[in-house]
Design a protein that fits this description.
The structure holds two protein chains of two kinds.
Chain A lengths: L1 H16 L18 H19 L12 H23 L9 H5 L2 H37 L5 H22 L6
Chain B lengths: L1 H12 L1 H19 L5 H11 L5 H26 L8 H12 L3 H34 L4 H12 L2 H4 L4 H15 L2 E2 L6 E2 L5 H4 L4 H17 L19 H6 L1 H16 L5 H15 L13 H24 L5 H12 L8 H4 L1 H32 L4 H20 L2 H19 L5 H23 L4 H10 L1 H16 L2 H6 L4
Antiparallel strand pairs in B: 1-2
Helix pairs in contact in B: 1-18, 2-4, 2-18, 3-4, 3-16, 4-5, 4-6, 4-15, 4-16, 4-18, 5-6, 5-15, 6-13, 6-15, 6-18, 7-21, 7-23, 9-21, 11-19, 11-20, 11-21, 13-14, 13-15, 14-15, 19-20, 22-23
The chains are: A mainly alpha, B mainly alpha.
Chain lengths: ~180, ~500
Amino acid sequence: MEESRELQAEGAAAEAAGTVKDLSKYVPEARRKPGELGIAVIMFLLGALGYYFALDMTSGEYSSPSVFPKLASTVIMACSAVNFFKAVRREKPESAATLTGYLLPMDVVVVVILLVTYCFVLPRFHFVASSYAFMVIGMVYLQRGKNIVRALLISALSLAVLVAVFRYLFLVILP
Amino acid sequence: MEQNLQYFLIPFLSWEMMMLIWVGVFAGIWVGAIPGLSVTMAASLLISFTFSWDLNSALALICGVFVGGVYGGSITAILLNIPGAPAAIATGIEGYPLAQRGEAGKAIGLCTTVSVFASFVGILVLSVAAPVIANFSLKFSPRDFFLLAVMGILLIGSIGGGDPIKGITAGAIGVLLSMVGMDPSTGELRYTFGNIYLMAGISFVTAMIGLFGVSEALTQFRNTGKKSPKQNLDRIIPSWATFLKYLPLSIRSSLLGVFIGALPGTGGDVAALLAYDQAKRTVRHPSRPFGTGAYEGIVAPETANKGAIGGAFIPMLTLGIPGDAVTAIIIGALYIHGLKPGPMLMIETPHLFWMIVSCLTIASVALMVLGLVSVKPFAKIIEIPKEIIMPVVIILSVIGTYAIQNSVVDIFYMIGFGIIGYFLRLYGYATGPMVLGLILGPMLDANYRRAMQGAENQLLPFLEGFITNPISLFLTLSIVFLIVSQSPFYRRWRGLE
């Protein structure tokens, strides 16, 4: 009991420090997030498309292949409609918050671009060269251009360990 | 009896088998910790290079990898919120908040201790009650598997992490995505749009790596520069009092794990999620509220997925039916070595049964030692600045994804799921229910349709089966109870609110 009280107090402190979010009880946020209505609409459209394409599947019996696709699509549409109206009832997002600023901070944009580029160059330059470049560029960018030598060394070391362990010890085929 | 004991002691008296089990556990922990590198994959690789070995040595190594691999999946779930395997998804829900509080060492220590306990429970049930459980599990009809999947889907409320409607939306999207590909019973193509890559369907492991691994990395990049929490590594091994405190929950969840593991087609992932859910519903005074780092939320799924190891061997050794993917591979190994798995296996080769029991026992001891020794180095991983660790995590995700079927297309899927998961998280849609939908969708679809075909496509006979068959009736009542127990009225009555 004593231990439990101690943990509850620690929890409150961590909560206050913002390190851990209390998910034990759902408390709806007062304001909706930028783009929240848009995502509910996109999900509704996804459900509608799912249902539309399920119409092409064999149907007519209770055990037809289209039963679960239609059911899942209907649930998506119904829930998205509820999510949309719940979001509408909340206050508008703060005027300072922009959709792109909320969704895609610069660091995320750079990493996503790096990641997509990495995927495209992977078949051409293979695993070692592409991964080394990805890690070095990623680390140097995220550390704002500092510690370049450290990034070069850590990337080389990490890659050497990964290749040794996966390729030669576990016999995993690398891309 | 004396003969059985002699068989049981074979691995204990062979230094070679002993060493192979320890090496297997060690390798399993590390393979299991990498998202995408599964125990199944490791076991199938081992089959190829243990082909020429003596059967005893091959089995020793595979048993070690099995036990270590199931445990390893939880390490990254606790440290980085990236489960190494689907069976560790529930562990991450409570484990990651604990790591954020600086209690990763304590969490992994408890995880190791209860895992070893649960492995022993599974082994004990395997040794004393295997034939009884195996025969009972064979009585499960498609309707019962359908009900079991429905029970699993009801977990969305538990792992949704916030708004239940958003959890259901994500779960339904997961079910819809699981329908992509060739319908296994009719061969009809669903949502493939003429694309050959979609014909095989979407691998839920690829989706899991993207939705948990890449989306976690992208979310972390929103807060670059924020220092990682310092980990307290003073008290790693839980006290005897702590162990005893969680003992009733450990026993309950281990037995649930053994039973679910013994059902062909289900495994540690379903067992862990069901156990997490039952803990959330039944534990009155958790160490912290669930979702914020409740130790009970680590104990329940971890004991269930380890109990499922012993459970998976039950139908395999008594009936020749694999309990999960790894035991299916072990059956393959037995065939390669000239044995015929089936009901006669235990009669014709009793030494094999007791040797597997023995290998699993030694592997559990090795897990205790190697798991606890690894806690400190593992916990230090979280203190590495995210600007350095996250690019490495992404590369690990790429290796894991590519290893599934050696396809670069899967890497694109994985990144796509990562970006989708990142957007979903921003709007409060948890990624766990989507993965749950992807895992349970095919089980729901296939078993519902088989059960309906069994009822000749008539709704009334199909529904009658839910109350006339004792197993179906029990599962139906359990589902009703699960729904009722989520109501505020019930929770107030039980003092859970």
